[in-house]
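Please, structure for the following, as tokens.
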Amino acid sequence: MGVWAEAERQRQRQSEARQRQQRAAERELARSNREQQVAYRQRRDAEAIRLTGELEARVESLSRLLAAGCRAPAFRTTALLRSEQVEPFAPGPLAVPVPMPNPGAYQPESSWGFGARRAQEEARSRYERDLSAARTAEERRQQQLTSYGRQYDEWRAGRLAEIRRHNAGIAENVAGLRRGDPETVVEYFSAALYASTAWPEGFPRQVSCAYDPSARRLVLNWELPGYDIVPAARYVRYLPSVDQDKETARPVGQRRALYRDVLAQSVLLALRELFAADEFGTLDSVTLNGFVDDHDPSTGLRAQLFLATVAADREVFERLNLVQVSAVDCLVDGLGGKLSARPDQRTVVRTGTVPGDLGRGTVSHGGGEDPDLFEMDPIEFESLVAELFRARGMQAVMTQRSNDGGVDVEALDPDPISGGTIIVQVKRYRHTVPPTAVRDLFGTVQGAGANKGVLVTTSKFGPGSYTFADGKPLTLISGPELVELLGQHGLRGRLGGGPAAVPAQRAASPTPAAAPEPEYNLLGMSWTGSVALDVCALVCQGNRVLSDDHFVFFNNARTPRRNGVRGGSARPGQGGPPRRVQLPAGPCGPARAGGVDRPRDQSGRGSRGLHRFVHPSVGRVGGRTRPAGGLGRPAR
């Protein structure tokens, strides 16, 4: 009994110990969870404080827009000049001579008799062989260095010529500016507004100008920031009960007052930039009409809504202390301008003189250099394409970024005859769009039940894409066509551009490479039977297709005519030699041809037939193909 009782007491003590350990672990876990919750709440509170600080800093920068802008340096014509310093010649490894072998490193190992003489001959032979190889490599290096130097000299001469032409044009513009040439004056002061460092990021810079030389007056329409430039939220607070950040809205009156102040500051700052840039005393007065590009509340159409206007004389404006003024009072009372009482509701003001009233050529600029479509944000690019469709009189909306089914923009053409739903996909590519993208678009159009599909790209399409799209409700818009359409509808965009790069240096090759002679192959074809064939051929280098430009399509006369067709048409079963097309070989050897055939019977359905591609060494024997040295093999 004593042993059994002792065992029971031992088990009881062990059970109590395990329970104590479990309770301690639970307490430690609860403490850790509380600490994590506290740390998480502190992080969320800190994030809310940071967001609130950003809102306050944004409001502070807007309230001090004019004072900060007045500290920016004035624009000068010298800012338009380009330096004639170009990238220096940098041959890199080509500048290092090839080391010659050291004769002392080719001493034979010590030996006696006939073996010593033989070892000396072998050492001398190794030395002469390595010396010859080093001299050959050095000659090749010098040749490559000379060739690269010539390329650099040509590039440098062209670059300097371009810079000097630009600077000569600036000198002519300065002379025109001194004479008061209207077009030169407009171009210069437009550049002054664009290049100014006084404007914060996100402010628009669209302008339309005209100059009256008799009155020495510049008249311009200048775009002002929209109402969303003022933050709608006053501060951010974290709510732990719902684990969300809550924004407290800024009072409407406070936001409206700040927006009016920002508009007034923008007008005064634009005037300051213009008069400060007038280093030759070209301007006696400036008439500025400030507008926002938004929807007109009365019509619902997008238009230029003028919210401010002022006519400022130079003498009056230069007496102002812009750092200390109240922007609204200075604009309205000091300069006699007009400012919308409710700009947030797009209440417009009546303007005085606008650029078109001068009876002279009005020059418009859309914010400086056209945006590069290749570098544009993908969402902005889709928005630009949607805006293009709207400019063509259609209704267009961008789809959501997820679960869009391959649709970037949905457009609706209101034309009762040719209109309907249009599915738009955009491809911001630099290389040729593959035909698979066109096929995918066609499947999307069928699946959505749309009337038409449009594929827009910054690049180009190959013949295979045009061939597939022919006869289908598909439209393909390449990069150059897109830029042309944008220009036709007042939108902006360009495809890359910029100065030419320094020619790429060619590293020294370990082995001499002779320039390959140009080689050509003849791609011929022959077939038997009475079926009608459409034949496609892809010219390859190794196992790689060279490009869509090396795609050859032979269209049969019995099949419908297709877009992007290359080559000729042939009728099977008729006499005469087969059609041939001459294609250049690849840069590293002769090109190979592979292809596919698409037999058709008279009903248009597929049927069996025999088709072969014929190399120049292949002859025709009895309607069948046979190479000169063996049996022919159908192309795959």
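The longest strand covers residues 302-313. Residues 361-368, 506-532, 556-636 have pLDDT under 50 and may be disordered.
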